[in-house]
Amino acid sequence: MKNILLIIAVLATGIITQINAQKYITKTGKIEIFSETPLFVIDGVNKKVASILNSANGDIVASTLIRSFRFEEALVEEHFNENYLEPNKFPKAIFKGKISNFEGVDLGKDGTYDITIVGKLTIHGQTRDIEETGKIIVENGKISASTQFNVSLKEYHIKIEKAYKKAIKDEIKLNVHFDYKFYR
């Protein structure tokens, strides 16, 4: 009888945890792209990135439309969309994963928490495993998360025009930032 009560208690605790699990969202996350070449600077920003953070287990999902990136130079934006990322064929970039050390993050306590993000990043129809470091900052009940890492154009099968092959680096720097709000 004790074992049955113990099993019921454990199951009930898991159910209550899932019921009480809070999700945090943003629809205005930001991704900045940067690379410097001898010919021009690739400097773009996308302020329409959606993300959900599950406070019960550290699961995180982020998604954006490729056409939402904006560049100072119209020619760079045109090449980005039409020649490289091909949003007509591959309209979204998606990340699905989790914060692997989420047990060390207290979303109810102000502080800066170093995190490790692991999961799958899909760009240009190609999915790759990633593991990157980042930070979660909790301040006065507000939660923000950020990371910075490089993406290889070659790994994601993003082809560069022959005329620009020597000028454009394979690695593009991404800065990602989310300001989350509680989701009811």
Give the beta-strand count.
9
Estimate the global geometry from the Cα principal axes: elongated
> Biggest β-sheet, characterized?
8 strands, antiparallel, barrel
Number of helices: 2
CATH top level label: Mainly Beta
The poorly predicted ranges are: 2-7, 9-20
What proportion strand?
over 45%
CATH topology: Lipocalin
Using only C-alpha atoms, the radius of gyration works out to 20 Å
Second CATH tier, the architecture: Beta Barrel
Mean pLDDT: 88
Number of self-contained structural domains = 1
CATH superfamily: Lipid/polyisoprenoid-binding, YceI-like
**Structural class, please?**
alpha+beta
The largest beta-sheet arranges its strands as 1-2-3-5-6-7-8-9
Helix and strand sequence: HEEEEHEEEEE
Level of helix content? 10-25%
Distance between the termini: 38 Å
Indicate the topology:
Layout: H1 2-20, E1 23-36, E2 41-54, E3 59-65, E4 70-71, H2 74-85, E5 92-99, E6 111-123, E7 126-139, E8 142-152, E9 171-183
Describe this structure in words.
- The protein is an alpha+beta fold.
- The protein has one domain: Beta Barrel (Lipocalin).
- Helix content is 17%, strand content 52%.
- It contains 2 helices and 9 strands; from the N terminus they run αββββαβββββ.
- It has helices spanning 2-20, 74-85, and strands spanning 23-36, 41-54, 59-65, 70-71, 92-99, 111-123, 126-139, 142-152, 171-183.
- Strands 1-2-3-5-6-7-8-9 form an 8-stranded antiparallel barrel.
- A hairpin with a 2-residue loop joins strand 7 and strand 8 (142-152).
- It is elongated and about 50 Å long.
- Mean pLDDT is 88; it is low at 2-7 and 9-20.
